[in-house]
Design brief:
The complex is a heterodimer of chains A (about 325) and B (about 240). Chain A is α+β, with helices and mostly antiparallel strands. Chain A is built from ten helices and eleven strands. Chain B starts with 11 loop residues before the first helix and ends in a 6-residue tail after the last strand. Classes of the chains: A alpha+beta (about 325), B alpha/beta (about 240). Chains A and B meet through helix 7 and strand 10 of A and helix 4 of B.
């Protein structure tokens, strides 16, 4: 096998992994990071006897890894520039000879989740050798020959669906997969015995659980909109509903959010839970009201102005202050 | 199948069967505090959730107070007002601030033309419902014949325009004879009242229609929850 073939093979395997990560519930970048972590762990364990960092500081660990990889003939150390930033390490990697270039550009063009295996290996090393979790933030500059990453101490937002013995977990909590049919029967049963509470059950159960979700990751974000978008993406990856923020006015505390593929609209339609079609996404309203109330620090309510239950293209939610 | 209207209150909706045809006329009567406005709030919420327009004529409380009640029952009126799907008419305030208002000193003809004007602003293609809370207040100090002429004419207009109208009437305000005269004009009548002992009053309602001069109705018991509104106790249906 020649080098050209091996590079082609690696890039296509990585693209296949990205496609797989994109197609499974709660997949995305998290799975790719897991793949890289396993790969980095295997590499490290195979060569750890030759790994001799000058100190236990993050910068020395990274330098020692680059030295080791070069001594084994895997890389050219001049391709890496490492800068010490205290707890942080800034890592620049030259794009020119990057073996993963085809993977990176193709995944970007095809809108697939992607990671940089070169930069992520540093995150795994520091996280595992320094006794505290490290995170990686990457930046790309189209007009530069260098890709830049920064590794820094920080908790990972654990959110992926994982197998945990015989159970499955989401974000470390035991989870279960419920079909819309099973959930529909649950909703229908509540409607049969206590129809007057159905809307409030759906609204409040989602409202309070969404507040907990928000609080769990609040410390990871300075930007409230990015935090909400992260949470909404998680909901989409669980297959509930895909949200799209259309308007976000944090000055006046007003937002417009579209919802696509609402499971509740489907359940209400399929089970004929209302006497006539009506806006049905009480859970969506509760979730959005909780996230925006947390983000904007005052009580925000949500009205559903359009709903897929009517045959609309999408659901439309308006978020506004309760006290206006 | 034609769209039908409901109250959004289980128990009452069950009694309606297939629902209210657009153009149906409903009278809600009862003493003050029995829950007529609460029922009206749930009805407005149902109407807007089902993508109907709604006109709320506030005679006994200001639009501002009605907005707060709607919020209490889980509906923020502002987005609906901004999109022209909910319109309040102020027939209560001494110095009204909105563009739609009516003074008790104005004649009932003026009320009719205002109601017509507001209905005409709702040209978004959705069906319309109207709530008058309460119509009996509009009738205060007016001649019985004038009231009956107004009543007949207005309900005919609303029926022709396929608008579901919900007229609230306070028992203490009108003579019983007025109720008797008006009752046959309505398709559905809900009479709300207290029963049980004075120490332990129970809320109940009779829902039905006038047939050959008699009120043919079914009885339901209900309670009022501060966040949900009227809850009909289904297993206690009379």
């Amino acid at each position: 096998m020649n080098d050209k073939y091996i590079v082609k093979l690696i890039n296509n395997v990585l693209l296949g992994v990205s496609q797989l990560a994109d197609s499974v519930p709660m997949g995305g970048k998290n799975y790719l990071e897991m793949v890289c972590d396993y790969y980095a762990a295997r590499m490290f364990n195979q060569y750890k006897n030759s790994f001799h960092p000058a100190s236990d500081k993050a910068i020395d660990i990274c330098h020692a890894w680059v030295e080791l990889m070069e001594s084994e003939g895997f890389i050219d150390k001049d391709v890496y520039k490492l800068d010490n930033g205290g707890d942080l390490v800034n890592i620049n990697v030259n794009k020119a000879d990057c073996s993963y270039c085809e993977y990176c550009t193709t995944a970007k063009a095809e809108n697939l989740p992607r990671i940089c295996p070169r930069l992520l290996s540093f995150k795994w090393l520091t996280s595992n050798l320094m006794g505290q979790p490290y995170q990686l933030k990457t930046e790309e500059f189209s007009d530069s020959n260098w890709c830049q990453g920064t590794i820094y101490p920080g908790e990972m937002i654990s959110e992926i669906l994982t197998k945990d013995g015989e159970n499955i977990s989401v974000a470390g909590e035991r989870a279960m997969v419920l079909s819309t049919n099973a959930f529909g029967i649950l909703v229908k049963t509540i409607n049969d015995y206590a129809p007057h509470i159905l809307e409030r059950v759906l609204y409040e159960s989602t409202y309070y659980s969404s507040q907990v979700e928000y609080e769990k990751i609040e410390s990871h974000y300075n930007n409230k909109r990015e935090l909400i978008e992260h949470l909404l993406n998680t909901i989409a990856r669980l297959g509930n509903i895909r949200y799209e923020i259309i308007e976000y006015d944090d000055m006046n505390k007003k937002a417009v959010v579209y919802g696509h593929g609402s499971y509740l609209a489907e359940i209400f339609k399929n089970n004929q839970l209302y006497t006539s079609p009506k806006a049905s996404c009480a859970s969506g309203k509760g979730r959005l009201a909780a996230y925006f109330t947390k983000a904007w620090g005052e009580e925000i309510v949500c009205e559903e102005m359009k709903c897929e239950a009517f045959g609309d293209d999408h659901c439309e939610f308006i978020l506004l202050r309760k006290n206006i | 199948m034609n769209k039908m209207g409901f109250f959004g209150i289980h128990g009452i909706d069950n009694l309606l069967g297939e629902g209210l045809a657009y153009g149906a006329q409903i009278m809600i009567r009862g003493n003050s505090g029995v829950g007529k406005s609460v029922l009206a709030c749930q009805y407005v919420k149902e109407a807007l959730s089902c993508r109907d327009n709604c006109i709320y004529i506030c005679c006994d409380e200001s639009p501002r107070e009605m907005r707060e009640y709607l919020k209490q029952y889980g509906l923020h009126p502002l987005p609906y007002e901004e999109t022209g799907r909910l319109v309040f008419v102020d027939a209560y305030s001494l110095e009204p601030t909105g563009k739609n208002y009516f003074s008790s000193e104005d004649g009932l003809e003026k009320y009719l033309s205002l109601e017509k004007e507001v209905i005409e602003t709702m040209k978004n293609g959705y069906p319309t419902r109207i709530v008058v809370d309460s119509l009996s207040t509009l009738f205060l100090g007016r001649d019985q014949q004038e009231i009956m002429e107004f009543h007949r004419y207005r309900l005919k207009l609303l029926k022709k325009a396929s608008i579901i109208c919900l007229d609230l009437m306070v028992d203490e305000v009108l003579e019983e004879s007025m109720f008797k005269l008006s009752a046959h004009l309505y398709d559905v009548i809900i009479k709300m009242y207290y029963t049980g002992s004075p120490e332990r009053p129970i809320r109940a309602l009779h829902m039905g229609k006038m047939k050959s001069g008699k009120f043919d109705s079914s009885q339901l018991y209900y309670t009022i929850d501060a966040n949900i509104g009227l809850i009909v106790m289904q297993n206690l249906a009379g």
